[in-house]
Amino acid sequence: MKKYVVMIAITILVAILAACSSDETSGNEKASGDWKPEQAIEIVAPAGSGGGWDTTARMAAKVFNEAGIIEEDIGVVNKPGGGGAVGWAYVAGFDGSNHNLFVASPPILLVPLNGQSEYGYEDFTPIANVIADYGAFAVREDAPWDNLNELFADMKEDPESITVVGTSSPGSMDHIQFVQIAKASGVDVTKIKYVTDPEGVGLTQLLNGSVEVFSTGVAETVEQVKAGTIKVLGITAEERLSGEVLEDFPTAMEQGIDASFVNWRGFFGPPNMDDAAVAYYEEKFKALSESDEFAEIRNQYGWNEMYMNSEEYQSFLAEQNETISALLDELGLGK
């Protein structure tokens, strides 16, 4: 009888150890991202074609497939509207999906903070950041200013005499990048005259004299600088960029203004994406960031490498959110 009891005990122990081993193996597989797509992947660009989100999404999808980093089909769809809010609401509807991604940048902090979207970065799954883009402040070639200090000196004296135009709404990207640099220079940012150009004709307004300053992305200024119609007084990067024309753009920091603004750009998943899927995409975006093919694309568009994994991205977003929230409150644009 004793022998029989011992054998039963051993059998139970073996079963328990096997179960633990199975659980441990399953946990390790999950931790190592042992997941693969089972269907086509959709990447949402929460804006129309041709802009930064659209270009980033399409170039990432192109390299993923052509370099063999991801074998499944990847489709890019545009969901414009609300400064990104329409696209975010669309992705939020795929709660728990492992096959839906979207590209994002500072507006996913700015737009919810100024009350124009019910969805913010906390409602999604940060996967990886991949690039850094930067802002540029351009004026007409015949404008009286040759650097940011000259511009800001006039703005300190009479802020409302100079109009700044940007594509994004007040409290969003083009506005805030200009405000952050101007504030560091001592301009009363609450008096800056900023107008929105949602139709993409800010450059036309600059050239016809309707506005004095164009706040935009560096890539949007290159061709006009080549043509000799505008000049870039400064950019928001910490160091000069590389590449034809770009290398000639002075930073605000080298002009003695202790401020920068990075237009980081990365990818998110829907709410409640599986940890294993996040690990899979982290690995793939890291491979994308390190690839020669994507390095060529960064050089083409004047982007810098800025890879962050999911955990790093989450911490970065929280810090950025706090900084931007304080700035919007100062401007009276917080919700």
Automatic annotation (TrEMBL):
Q: Which UniProt keywords apply?
A: Signal
Under Gene3D superfamilies, the record lists: Bordetella uptake gene, domain 1, Periplasmic binding protein-like II
Q: Which residues form the signal peptide?
A: 1-18
Q: Which family does it belong to?
A: Belongs to the UPF0065 (bug) family.
**Protein name as it appears in the record:** Tripartite tricarboxylate transporter substrate-binding protein
Q: State the species of origin.
A: Ornithinibacillus xuwenensis
Q: What does UniProt list as this organism's lineage?
A: Bacteria, Bacillati, Bacillota, Bacilli, Bacillales
